[in-house]
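call fold(seq) -> tokens
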Amino acid sequence: MSVIDIHAHYVPKGWADLGEATGDRSHDWPWLRVDSEKEAMMMVGDKEFRPITHNSWNAEVRLKEMDADGVDFQVMSPTPLFFTYEESGKTSATIARIFNDEALKIAEQGEGRLIPFCQVPLQDTEEAIKELDRCVANGHRGVEIGNHVGDRDLDDAGIVDFLAHAAELDVPVFVHPWDMAESPRLNRWMARWLAGMPQETHLSIISLILGGAFDRLPKNLKLAFAHSGGSFPYWLGRFENAWHRRPDLIAKSEFSPSHYLDRFSVDTVVFQEASLRLLVDVLGEDHVMLGSDYPYPLGETPVGTVVREASFLTDEQEAKILGGNAQRFLGMK
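ret:
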């Protein structure tokens, strides 16, 4: 069974001037300050956002590091900084096209082992569907979306229409938390990533259930959440209890929360065996897939360590999580 990393990101080694491409030079657009052959800094206007190295854009380096970790295939998703959901649909579509085309250039050098996922202007359903169609025709194998658009969560009518279109195309959707809330408390110690990111993912899974989105969406939708579903797996019992005991406060879905556990998958970016055991216990061995968050510093390295060292997994379960479930999710033969 192939080993497939479902959660990795890419950053091109530079891209078109977004101010020129969008006709808006007043905006602080993302750009890349290349500091050396191997090092660069992601910038937003004149502010440093994140240092990166050449494994973000160099397919040869990625393949060598995949080989070292025993990874056969890797899904390359956009870095959420590039989503630009706060812009108009037309502007965001222009930006999406630029990065989606850059992703294909990297994947083309990956000897068939790098699987590109596109981004879309999710704030504009018509433009999002148009870009998804273009990308699928050009070779993208799936789409990554942010977990919300401003105050619109995944049960929003326009987002549900987009997800239904992805299901119609049999295109897998990977949901990544982004745009976490800021406050004096959350701006310390990377708390937006350590606490805000799990909260965002948890909230969006709740919205799909209580907002009735799963009741409206086709069951063949292939949906997966990054970062192990956030805090949702741990708090399913609380959610289930509230659904049954406080119907006056909860806008009920057609069924209780646990009924929908087979409608989505999560990755394994949990870093410890106890958390992985919880994922498998709650979501089932068929709905957990290997993920790493490569190549960022908070990702798992070597990739797959927690799964391979987990004492509770059978050989069959390990094979499913390392690659079998992802093969089905990606439609790979």
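The chain has a mean pLDDT of 95.
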